[in-house]
Every structure is written in structure tokens, then in C-alpha cells.
Design brief:
The protein is an all-beta fold. It is built from no helices and five strands. It has a domain of about 55 residues: Roll (Urease, subunit C, domain 1), CATH 2.30.40.
């Protein structure tokens, strides 16, 4: 039985902490990052070759322009 649910191999990992990017494997177990290492020996139920790719956590862009709010929000004002 595989040790991890998913192993992403050989990608350039950028983790968002500000440390320099590294080429590494990344293992996922139960929906969470279980390990980041130069070489993960354990196997995954699914494995992806990320050579030449960036591996980074998901990001959500909360920037939005909802100008229709000006029609109903008494606290909104034109700037």
C-alpha cells in the first residue's frame, strides 16, 4: 500500500514563506502536505512528474471591483 496519497516529484517548490525556491519532491497525505524533501523514497497512490514546473500552494485573489454596490450601499461613495 502506498505511503502517501500523492507524490509530486522534481518540481521547483515555492512555499510562500520567503525562503529560496528549491527543487524537491512533495508528498500529500489526507489532504495535507506531509513532506517536502530533495528525494522522497515512499511512493504515492498517484505520482506526478513536475520537472520543469513550479509547485506552490493555492492562492485566492480577493481583489474585486463590484461597482453595483454603489446603487444600494448607503455607506459607499464615489472616489
Amino acid at each position: 500500500m502506498p505511503e502517501y496519497d500523492l507524490v509530486i516529484r522534481g518540481g521547483t517548490v515555492i512555499d510562500g514563506t520567503g525562503i529560496p525556491r528549491i527543487r524537491a519532491d512533495l508528498a500529500i497525505k489526507d489532504g495535507r502536505v506531509a513532506m517536502i524533501s530533495g528525494r522522497i523514497n515512499g511512493g504515492g497512490a498517484k505520482e506526478l512528474d513536475a520537472s520543469g514546473c513550479i509547485v506552490a500552494p493555492g492562492a485566492v485573489d480577493l481583489h474585486t471591483h463590484y461597482d453595483a454596490q454603489l446603487n444600494w450601499d448607503p455607506y459607499a461613495s464615489l472616489s
